[in-house]
Specification:
By secondary structure, the chain is an alpha/beta fold. Helix content is about 35%, strand content about 25%. A hairpin with a 4-residue loop joins strand 5 and strand 6. Helix 4 packs parallel to helix 5. The longest helix has about 35 residues.
């Protein structure tokens, strides 16, 4: 019985081997055909459709920057270098690149929305609405319309959030916030349009906001005691537990939070 089964086993092995060889041959043929089709001139990239934000970049400048990175056909062009070329341009925050059959690329651009200058006075960096720091031509920003924010590296989102929080509170008090700075030690300092500066101390947003609101509530009464008003504020230090140091035009004192 084993002698008769052996030829049958050999036949099955030969058939299996033939099937494997045929499959490998068919696969190699398919790969070769795919490569041949992918390189046909009909699939050469003929153009790029750009949509989205283009307020600070024009089509000719983008074309000059990007076209040298476009190599190959619809199937073989690498999209990463194309995306990087767009994102290397000023004001471009993000570029999404897709293939558009049969021979084009499609790009969606998102530009930075500048909300503040970033860094020390004279620094040309900007901050976008995501709290990200970026470099661009500040001459394209309308002068004196943006606040100046500053802080340690990577703290842009935190500083931007604090600015928005304090802006509402100070506006209700008739004060215009133009500067917010976070020190490396975690202390907050702000500047007003009037030229006044306030040391707000450290802590989380809720603690800083509480001190600031308490100061603003008592400031008019304290200033009135010295024949001044809130607009005469030059400097305040809120880093005390239950008091603040205050300087008005022509007056310097240490006032309790709740005036007697």
């Amino acid at each position: 019985m084993s002698e008769s089964a052996s030829p049958a086993m050999d036949i099955r092995l030969m058939n299996a081997a033939s099937a494997v060889l045929f499959s490998v041959f068919a696969l190699l043929l398919l790969v070769s055909a795919t490569r041949w089709v992918a390189r046909l001139a009909a699939f050469d990239i003929q153009g790029i459709t750009v949509r989205g934000d283009m307020a600070h970049n024009n089509i000719p400048s983008m074309r000059a920057n990007v076209l040298p990175r476009v190599r190959g056909t619809f199937f073989t062009t690498e999209l990463l270098p194309v995306r990087q070329a767009y994102e290397s341009m000023p004001w471009v925050r993000q570029a999404v690149v897709r293939r558009d059959f049969p021979n084009r690329l499609r790009v969606e651009l998102q530009e930075h929305q500048a909300v503040a200058y970033w860094g020390a006075e004279g620094d040309s960096r900007l901050l976008n609405s995501f709290g990200e720091v970026f470099d661009a031509n500040i001459d394209e920003v309308e002068p004196n319309t943006l606040p100046r924010l500053a802080g340690p590296a990577g703290q842009g989102p935190l500083v931007w959030d604090m600015y928005q929080t304090l802006l509402i509170t100070l506006n209700r008090a008739g004060m215009e916030l133009v500067h917010v700075e976070l020190s490396p030690r975690g202390n907050w300092r702000i500047g007003l349009e009037s030229g006044a500066h306030l040391e707000l101390g450290g802590g989380d947003k809720a603690a800083v906001l509480k001190r600031t609101e308490r100061f603003l509530q008592t400031l008019p009464a304290v200033a009135q005691r010295y024949g001044r008003n809130a607009a005469s504020l030059e400097y305040a230090d809120l880093r005390y537990e239950q008091a603040y140091a205050l300087r008005l035009r022509g007056v310097t004192t240490l006032a309790a939070v709740t005036p007697k």
